[in-house]
Specification:
The structure holds 2 protein chains of 2 kinds. Chain A is α/β, with parallel strands linked by helices. Chain A contains 16 helices and 16 strands. In chain A, the strands form 4 sheets. Chain A has a 7-stranded mixed sheet, sandwiched between helices. Chain A has a 4-stranded antiparallel sheet with strand order 12-13-16-15. A 3-stranded mixed sheet of chain A has the order 3-4-14. In chain A, helix 4 packs antiparallel against helix 13 and helix 15 crosses helix 16. Chain A starts with a helix and ends with a helix. Chain B is of the alpha/beta class. Chain B has 16 helices and 13 strands. Chain B has a 7-stranded mixed sheet with strand order 3-9-8-7-6-4-5, with helices on both faces. Chain B has a 3-stranded mixed sheet with strand order 1-2-11. The radius of gyration of chain B is 24 Å and the shape is globular. The chains are: A alpha/beta, B alpha/beta. Chains A and B meet through helix 3, helix 4, helix 5, helix 6 and helix 7 of A and strand 1, helix 3, helix 5, helix 6 and helix 7 of B.
Chain lengths: 479, 489
């Protein structure tokens, strides 16, 4: 029995081997094809077929309409504003007259340290007269963007005047100071470029940095060593320096701390590492320098070394709007690429006339700058011994910044303490000073404090009154 | 919707092709000639790399004289356009002292408040003398005057919402409000043709942005269903909140938005709505209250209504109107309220006076007359243009009417020829519109009289024949129609 099966198997094996070795009679490419080659070819074909077939995945079933309906019904959105409204809104004081050094609030005369009216131009008769003429000629608004009949001869005159004043070839006028910087930065810096910025820059700059989609590095507030370290780090990492645009963004006078940027040092570093500088001079234009031309004049840096200067005109020039100057190429580039220049109505003509009037006043009366500096110095001396508060701003900054000597620990309680101080100062002593406000969207890490905006039109008695009332209230609050 | 004939599309593409080829040729030769000159960048990367500014240098600069024309008077129905000349083929333009009086079909002057007005201007000058040009301060510091609080209440009453807040500029309103309302983990669905300020605000907020087809409520529903069902990308967590952003009148198309359908979709899926009425507030509706009044939508159904004062009120600035809680929240967090200089007091007074005129609270019916006039003007002008065979976009009652040009060469031809005949027209090309769909945009005002419109129609018809933009067949002119037109004063 076993031998019978063995015989059958042996016969089958013989049959298969003979079939494999038997020549089929076909000759391809001069090679005789044997039976086993046919079998191997078949095997190869099967292997290739299996390899090319996609691996088996469970089939993806899209959601059915009913499932989508259920998900949509179940979804509950958060409320649009999820605020804990336990903290009541502190209403700002309502002014009933022009925001000059004295202003009427609630029928009472109050000394005003809340307006950035550095040159005392609020209420200036010449400026107001030129505005009246402008209003009668042009109306209020300009009713169109710059490219579509919104350019008036007043705008072109204003641009030429500002350019002549600063000493740059050309200038672009924006319709609002706040949006100037956050439109200029994305116009020049795009994705893939590098920006180095001070960590204490204000929100508009931060928004511009976000919108530009560039890589941003922050350095410690006004700390040149930190800046140098970051420059070294970046320059060693760039592979193609000819193709990557690099910018450094600083403010001349930081509105969050009153510090002044050391421009000489920054220019030296930026020339070494081939960065372009974007300088925001909102609070220093018309304030620093012998004739008010800004930080470059004060530090003795020639204008050609600063690539882009932006400024809001709502401070020293006592009007509204913004400006951006630089070389001809810089300004022309903005006129076609800057969104807040192209896609929005132009500056109302009467504000441009007011800007021209302000510049004429400044050029005719450079002594107003010495008066401003004297006022700042006097007030700083008077405020040097306030209990619980310390002045941290630069001696030349028209924003006097007082921060708490000892913080209570949380921003919220700090704000409550500072708000109570300013409220008392206003109610009991009729002096208007303000705290720093910080939006929840703001990423600035600098401490909160009190701010006083000094003006050239403040008299000595105003300054004495402000210092005395603050000292009295602070003594009570910090006892 | 724009229907682009095949032949026109082909010729437009061909024109752009020729322009691009020429541009590249000139760039090539420029590179050769400049190769010998030393590169004065000294290691700095150039401001524009590669072909970033190709369109500007080679296409836009050729027709630069059609844009940015300066004027030397108020942008009323007739204004003075300053003449310019160029010595280097349009690369730089120089002003002259000469001006030409032209009919203004380009300014956003819907109700005619652009020039000095008998009711508004004396009050504006008075407020200028009382409050001076600017407060030099932010709203929360010392920049709130009685005028600002008065205007906020008036705006809330006018628009039909419980409360409102003001900002100094319309562009900033959108860019700074949207980040305050929504952040990471939220979804913004915006119309595909929304304005640049909304796009910037959406990008700056950090939320995910999706786009739905222009004015297409069924597509909006499709996008909403898909997004709610799938949740946030990658993590699939449910969205924190969803906001749909639309505009009242789209300024490049002149179309009204299909508000009732879109609001119905939004209510069904519990999403918030944000309506940007920059061009429609004060210009459409029976009493000038915007698209909600025109299309019969209750203002309580829209969560946030935004608008600007530049167009219909002849001033500057923007506002947001919403419920009291939202406005309080915005006053606490919005950076434009906390950090930006407050609106200039004379501009605030202008808006207050203009609104009083529109509401009839100045004691006359000038407001109602202006609103009726702009409606009549827009409808008359649009129907006449369509009868002449032009391709005009936009809906009835909308004061904006774009006329399609398509071909790039027709843009400067139309613009310059109209200016020769003393009609000032605005032409729009890439990048404000898609590349193939260049157009001339007309903005009608209540200050235009019937004679002005008839003159404009004559000039446009003549120039249209010259340039060849009457893409549709002309309606046969009935013999007594011409006298009928002239009889209406």
């Amino acid at each position: 029995m076993a031998s019978g099966i063995m015989d059958v198997i042996a016969n089958a094996l013989n049959l298969i081997t003979s079939a494999f070795d038997a020549p089929t009679g076909a000759i391809i490419f001069g090679v005789p094809i044997d039976g086993h080659l046919m079998f191997e070819a078949l095997l190869v074909m099967v292997i290739v077929f299996q390899l090319t077939k996609k691996s088996h995945k469970p089939p993806k079933k899209p959601l059915t309409e009913k499932e989508i309906d259920e998900l949509c019904d179940e979804w509950v959105p958060e409320p649009l504003t999820s605020d804990s409204t336990e903290e009541t809104m502190i209403e700002p004081p309502t002014l009933e007259s022009a925001a000059g050094p004295h202003v009427i609030v609630d029928g009472k005369d109050v000394v005003n340290f809340a307006s950035a009216n550095y040159l005392g131009l609020v209420g200036n008769k010449n400026v107001i007269d030129s505005c009246v003429g402008s209003l009668e000629k042009y109306g209020v608004g300009s009713c169109g963007p710059r490219t579509f009949y919104g350019t008036m001869d007043v705008h072109l005159d204003c641009e030429a005047r500002i350019a002549k004043f600063i000493g740059m070839p050309d200038c672009a006028l924006y319709s609002y100071g706040f949006c100037t910087i956050f439109s200029v930065i994305p116009a020049f810096s795009k994705k893939g470029d590098i920006i180095v910025a001070d960590e204490g820059v204000h929100w508009a700059v931060q928004n511009g940095l976000d919108l530009s989609r560039s890589t941003v590095f922050y350095f410690k507030h006004n700390d040149m060593k930190s800046l140098e370290a970051i420059f070294e780090k970046i320059t060693s990492r760039i592979k193609e320096p000819e193709k990557v645009r690099r910018y450094i963004v600083v403010e001349a006078i930081y509105q969050n701390s009153g510090q002044i940027a050391p421009l000489n040092e920054i220019v030296r570093l930026k020339e070494k590492h081939k960065f372009r500088i974007i300088l925001d001079e909102s609070h220093s234009f018309g304030v620093l320098g012998n004739s008010g031309r800004g930080l470059a004049e004060y530090c003795g840096v020639p204008n050609e070394k600063i690539d882009i200067i932006t400024a809001g005109m709502g401070n020293a020039l006592a009007t509204d709007g913004g400006l951006c100057t630089g070389s001809v190429g810089v300004v022309n580039h903005q006129r076609l690429m800057s969104s807040a220049y192209l896609f929005t109505a132009s500056l109302p003509p009467y504000l441009a006339s007011a800007a021209i009037g302000a510049l004429e006043y400044l050029e005719a009366n450079p002594s107003v700058l010495t008066k401003l500096r004297a006022n700042i110095a006097f007030l700083l001396k008077e405020l040097s011994d306030v209990s619980g508060l310390a002045t941290v701003s630069h001696p030349l900054s028209p924003i006097i910044f007082l921060k708490l000597k000892k913080s209570t620990g949380s921003n919220k309680t700090d704000m409550h303490l500072l708000d109570s101080i300013t409220n008392q100062v206003l109610k009991e002593h009729s002096v208007l000073i303000v705290t720093t406000k910080r939006s929840s969207l703001d990423k600035c890490p600098l401490p909160l404090g009190l701010r006083l905006f000094v003006s050239a039109s403040h008299s000595e008695s105003d300054l004495v009154k402000a210092a005395a009332s603050l000292k009295k209230v602070a003594a009570v609050a910090f006892s | 919707m724009v229907r682009l004939p095949y032949l026109t599309a082909l010729t437009t593409l061909l024109s752009y092709g020729i322009l691009f080829v020429f541009g590249h040729l000139r760039d090539f030769f420029r590179k050769i000639f400049d190769w010998s000159k030393s590169n004065n960048l000294q290691g700095y990367a150039p401001i524009c790399l590669g072909y970033e500014d190709f369109y500007t240098r080679r296409l836009y600069l050729r027709i630069q004289d059609c844009f940015g024309r300066p004027i030397s008077s108020a942008p009323d129905s007739w204004f003075d356009v300053v003449e310019r000349y160029s010595n280097d083929n349009n690369k730089t333009l120089h002003r002259t002292e000469k001006t030409t009086k032209c009919l203004n079909l380009g300014s956003y002057n819907y109700l005619g408040f652009a020039a000095a007005d008998e009711y508004c201007t004396p009050r504006v000058i008075e407020s200028l003398k009382q409050y001076s040009v600017s407060t030099c301060s932010t709203r929360v510091d010392g920049g709130t005057t009685k005028l600002h609080t008065e205007l906020e209440e008036l705006v809330a009453r006018f628009v039909g919402k419980p409360a409102a807040v003001l900002f100094g500029m319309g562009y900033v309103t959108n860019s700074a409000i949207i980040p305050a309302l929504i952040g990471k983990g939220g979804l913004i669905i915006s119309d595909s043709l929304n304005h640049n300020s909304i796009v910037n605000g959406a990008r700056g907020s950090g939320a995910t942005v999706r786009v739905f087809q222009h004015n297409n409520a069924p597509h909006l529903e499709e996008v909403l269903r898909e997004q709610i069902a799938h949740g946030q990308p990658r993590t699939h967590r449910p969205w924190k909140k969803i906001i749909v952003i639309i505009e009242g009148i789209y300024s490049m198309e002149g179309e009204l938005c299909k508000l009732p359908e879109i609001i119905a979709v939004c209510k069904k899926y519990k999403v918030y709505t944000y309506l940007d009425e920059a061009h429609s507030i004060g210009a459409v509706g029976q009493t000038g209250r915007g698209v909600c009044e025109l299309l019969g939508v209750d203002t309580a159904d829209i969560d946030i209504m935004m608008g600007t004062f530049t167009k219909s009120f002849g001033s500057c600035g923007g506002y947001i109107a919403a419920s009291k809680e939202i406005i309080q929240h915005l006053k606490r967090t919005c950076p434009a309220h906390l950090y930006a200089t407050s609106m200039s007091p004379p501009a605030v007074q202008q808006v207050i006076s203009a609104m009083k005129v529109i509401l009839g609270e100045d004691g006359t019916n000038r407001g109602a007359k202006k609103l009726a006039q702009i409606r009549e003007n827009s409808n008359f002008f649009r129907s006449e243009l369509q009868k002449m065979g032009f391709e005009v976009l936009g809906d009835n009652d909308s004061p904006i009417m774009p006329i399609m040009l398509y071909n790039p060469a027709k843009i400067p031809a139309f613009s310059r020829e109209c200016l020769h005949q003393n009609v000032a027209i605005v032409t729009v090309a890439f990048p404000a519109t898609p590349l193939l769909l260049a157009r001339a945009r007309i903005c009608i005002s209540a200050a235009h009289s019937r004679e002005d419109l008839i003159k404009a129609l004559e000039v446009i018809s003549k120039v249209g024949d010259l340039v060849g933009i009457k893409y549709f067949p002309v309606e046969p002119v009935k013999p007594n129609k011409v006298e009928h037109l002239k009889k209406i004063e």
